[in-house]
TrEMBL record, chains A, B, C, D:
Organism: Desulfobulbus oligotrophicus
Summary of the function given for this chain in its UniProt record: This reaction introduces a second double bond into the aromatic ring system.
Keyword line: Amino-acid biosynthesis, Aromatic amino acid biosynthesis, FAD, Flavoprotein, FMN, Lyase, NADP
Gene Ontology cellular component annotations, sorted alphabetically: cytosol
Gene3D superfamilies: Chorismate synthase AroC (3.60.150.10)
HAMAP family cross-referenced by the UniProt entry: Chorismate_synth
Stored PROSITE patterns: CHORISMATE_SYNTHASE_1 (PS00787), CHORISMATE_SYNTHASE_2 (PS00788), CHORISMATE_SYNTHASE_3 (PS00789)
InterPro entries noted in UniProt: Chorismate_synth, Chorismate_synth_AroC_sf, Chorismate_synthase_CS
Pathway terms, separated by semicolons: Metabolic intermediate biosynthesis; chorismate biosynthesis; chorismate from D-erythrose 4-phosphate and phosphoenolpyruvate: step 7/7
Lineage: Bacteria, Pseudomonadati, Thermodesulfobacteriota, Desulfobulbia, Desulfobulbales
Top-level EC class: lyase
Protein name: Chorismate synthase
Cofactor: FMNH2
Amino acid sequence: MSSSLGTLYKVTTFGESHCKGVGAVVDGCPPGLELTEADIQPQLSRRRPGQSDLSTPRQEADQVTIYSGTEFGRTLGTPIMLLVHNRDQRPQDYGEMSNIPRPSHADFTYQMKYGIRASSGGGRSSARETIGRVAAGAIAEKWLRETYATEIVAWVSAVGDIEAPPADIEQISRTEVDSQTIRCPDPATAARMTARIREVLDAKDSTGGVVTCVCRNVPVGLGEPVFDKLEARLAQAMLSLPATKGFDIGSGFAGTRLSGSQHNDPFIQKGTTLGTRTNYSGGVQGGISNGEPIIFRVAFKPVATIGIAQETVDFDGKTVTLAAKGRHDPCVVPRAVPIVESMAALVLIDMALHQRSRRPGTLDLRG
Amino acid sequence: MSSSLGTLYKVTTFGESHCKGVGAVVDGCPPGLELTEADIQPQLSRRRPGQSDLSTPRQEADQVTIYSGTEFGRTLGTPIMLLVHNRDQRPQDYGEMSNIPRPSHADFTYQMKYGIRASSGGGRSSARETIGRVAAGAIAEKWLRETYATEIVAWVSAVGDIEAPPADIEQISRTEVDSQTIRCPDPATAARMTARIREVLDAKDSTGGVVTCVCRNVPVGLGEPVFDKLEARLAQAMLSLPATKGFDIGSGFAGTRLSGSQHNDPFIQKGTTLGTRTNYSGGVQGGISNGEPIIFRVAFKPVATIGIAQETVDFDGKTVTLAAKGRHDPCVVPRAVPIVESMAALVLIDMALHQRSRRPGTLDLRG
Amino acid sequence: MSSSLGTLYKVTTFGESHCKGVGAVVDGCPPGLELTEADIQPQLSRRRPGQSDLSTPRQEADQVTIYSGTEFGRTLGTPIMLLVHNRDQRPQDYGEMSNIPRPSHADFTYQMKYGIRASSGGGRSSARETIGRVAAGAIAEKWLRETYATEIVAWVSAVGDIEAPPADIEQISRTEVDSQTIRCPDPATAARMTARIREVLDAKDSTGGVVTCVCRNVPVGLGEPVFDKLEARLAQAMLSLPATKGFDIGSGFAGTRLSGSQHNDPFIQKGTTLGTRTNYSGGVQGGISNGEPIIFRVAFKPVATIGIAQETVDFDGKTVTLAAKGRHDPCVVPRAVPIVESMAALVLIDMALHQRSRRPGTLDLRG
Amino acid sequence: MSSSLGTLYKVTTFGESHCKGVGAVVDGCPPGLELTEADIQPQLSRRRPGQSDLSTPRQEADQVTIYSGTEFGRTLGTPIMLLVHNRDQRPQDYGEMSNIPRPSHADFTYQMKYGIRASSGGGRSSARETIGRVAAGAIAEKWLRETYATEIVAWVSAVGDIEAPPADIEQISRTEVDSQTIRCPDPATAARMTARIREVLDAKDSTGGVVTCVCRNVPVGLGEPVFDKLEARLAQAMLSLPATKGFDIGSGFAGTRLSGSQHNDPFIQKGTTLGTRTNYSGGVQGGISNGEPIIFRVAFKPVATIGIAQETVDFDGKTVTLAAKGRHDPCVVPRAVPIVESMAALVLIDMALHQRSRRPGTLDLRG
């Protein structure tokens, strides 16, 4: 009831941080798609920790294997099981540590909900859970690209209070994003963000940030009103990611300050169909894609694991002082970039398959 | 695939603005709950347009009738059909108007998606669609209140750039909220908001705003990681509402600017269980309620229907000028208050029933 | 979780025997289908009791009204709410009767499951619940007929131990079926069945029977292995009907006595594609339709309401004697014919929409 | 949409006959259950081919590994991934064979549905797909046994036209069933069945059969009317198994020949609750378990793979003669026994979790 997303392209993820492996089953992938591990690995590698000295130094190989659902390099239309073995497969009993729920982690709530929890590494609330999402999303993305030329590009638009200038959403590319380690395509802002993260790291503290994502060449007509409106499904997908606290689309929270005459997007002729002059709607009207770029933002809270000592209480209510040992990632947003892209792809493919069931043959890309 | 929400408390809404009626079927309501129309009507009346001279003057009676699922004033555990007859049941063919997709409305996307659309009134994208949600939500809310003493209170926290001061989330009540027509509990801010809406109305324009909502006495353990985390489901529910552009929870977008040492919520003893000293998490950790108040915000864009003339194109690409006739609601947020509350109730009851299936008898309220 | 069937063509039924009304919401009906009440009423009328002196004399008008989802006689692709008002809307408190669970009815299990039950008329286990199914099925059937020329015909193939000779499944029509009141197309058998039912009626007893159904012109490729194989979904649909005890398809239980060399269906060229020489498979191989007629049988137990006195116990365990008063339907199978057809249509349309999502434009009918 | 079963205990299977592995993800297993591979392996071993000279001699090790969802031998309430590596992982291109759809196999329908199919071994229609079901079912069964003392026992009740005498459904045990290789507990019948299978084997032919299954100590109240009635879900589960053609419950098809006065099950006092004197209902009334043993039958067609030469056509319509080489299992029913038990367990646990969400604490076993 909880680890599956989507109806026609259904992804079920599995795995804790310290079990034998993590991954996903993709049920409903269209048949006949060329697919090997090489199509999936790049996004997994972008997601991997240890890509720079700004993130956690753990070296996780994260090599994915396709266990089922393909033959001779093509999908069969049957479930695709994707597995990444965990390097560290020993759950540890942290002794007295295990009696201390870490502030703003999931220790307390998992223990209360399930009456048991993974003894170490955060279990399902670990960032490793997102491996299955990214693997499944890479397949979705390939199909969207081949079928509609859909392009999905996310980037770091804020670290703490450092905000990037608006990006050119018609042009921004992953190459451009990855040209900066911090994944903010604006070099000057990237430099300031990098400096900020170093400061935070030195202070044994952490910081939050914002990831912005654009989806181009999304066919008109995706989204299933009223409860599966496109923005509703995107919001669910993004808020299901660890450490997220907010989502907005198009003009978002800032748009609430505008008047209708400023905010309305007038229609204009674009090629053989209609587009809009402005895009305050963010590519979605009435819960359905209108062919304009879909643009949304995701808020990530500061990482909860910090080296600074914190006073809290254990499960028995006894006051204790807690300070994380070792190095930890002080800011998740650079690594979150491919994860956000993957979640967007998972939503878009599911909505596209729904729309194909409704009007076969007419689902052409505008313009 | 689209007009149903929830798994164990499943709501299916139906109805266009100008068909015979609108409403919902609630499948999975716990049996034995005392229920008559009188439990549902108050929230429907709060949702109704025409409650003040600030909103649209249409008088919609919106009297709900329970058609099934109860007997002698108690729920049977079977589907509850809730019906509100439409007063205006004549779909109209607007003639040439029907060839003009209104800017930032759903005319264009519905036409493209379905190849047909309701000729008038916005069809399913009409605000009338929310009647079924509010009716279903009122039942959910009653059960939550009786079972867990859960309290759900929403209010207008911003109109355009006028923001209300922080509310006392432990105390704020619907009575307090409704004491101001604008549903902002702070009288001074309410006055400024009211003035702003009058200005906008006079200018034949519209404005956006923000609704904030708190849910108190939510039992620990609600939310189904990883894809049905509580905040993910709330985000989906809110972004499925007409005119919404954003959702954040707890510290939200503002929290991304904080450091981890500021943002972490240390645990403290509260009664016989643990609570947190601060509540930047917004009542949710790891996707699961932690017993603290759940607090979130929803962004509503400025109303798209405005009296100011707009230049746009018709479906054939011909330039036309469009100006809405008659009076329209220049700001939806006051009426959105009970709708947001209802959607929260729908999510919470579904998650509560899930958790009851897992650990029956242990779903105790903290403290 | 229980009153909805289907994923892309989702039907939610509502209503008890003695509430205000019964009906269904159809979510996911393809847009643009011509539809008025006149398309639905014929099957409802075939389902209605009181069509002959062999069935219960209650005259239920069962006039359906479309409340939403259509405009100017065409479907909008939005939820279609179908409502039939109940004539007898007064739940009755049967006094001491209510403390006696009727043998082989649902009184005991509903009371134990929900802790409450409809005081009279069987509540959701009443045959009136099938009204919503038949209405929703009539719409499905129309779409299947227009899209694939699909024909669905059911008939009474056994009453008690009186079995009809095999029908010509390539030709049998509803006209032929309805030419006999008992809905067994073979006149001689129909006469014997009619006589049997009169005997049973005179004896204040009841009898069971079998309905056989054929679906012709079902496109190749319907069914979603492995859990939603076409026969699995048909079996669920049929066993969800009141009073059903069995389902088999193709050779069914009798086929278990054959050898593989007898039972295998060799392929032959049929038109431009392949068909099979025999059809022991019943139109389904590997859970997927193969283009041959789908043929299945549904077992209906003898009606539980009988006038003969039965010794049983009340909820307190006290021995009582029970005998139903008034006239009751001694055999459900004639009225079950349109209900079985409707359930078949609901399964086929849902599977067809799934397959359309997978291979748009290629879902052509064989031959 | 197709490889997942269940809502609260959701099983997703994956794997083809010749890919890297087969298995399942179980999402929603109650937390805190003691679980290791040793709890799962016995049923997998009962399912395994090559257990006697009556079945295919292939030796499949079928060793299961738990990849996630447990720690220190207890379930965490998180997804449990169960993997069995395939020994034969090389898909083969059969050359001209691949252009011949085998009669009564899934070659033709898979090819037509997906436009591609596994080149050998039957892909998802292979019996190996059931490994994931059996592994997931073993976990379900353990929980049901520990929670309700539920016992599920299936056996071979017919091979071809050889039928076993009625079993003592209150007493029959797996030990008794497994005391005969053929898994028919009646020794005399077992001997005749064995002789029949040898005959069929010698004739390079195959035969069908029937598996009967009883579920004892099923709590009252399981089943979710109207579409997820217990018998409906059981029917779907059983008809989703390869080679099944029929399902009936309680009196089943034979019961249609009885009169209501014979067939009704009068209530009697049993311990502190009510039971029924007879059990024609098969443990289910109104779609809900009544506490009596649930008893149902599943029809399995004769195995389609036979050594006898068959005339058929290839995909191009050219007449060819086909004869399977090597040894094949001439009758699936002995191996189907644990598979049927597993499917029953999957349905029962899902329904039990639903009922727990409704009336926590009251789901008591009768008597």
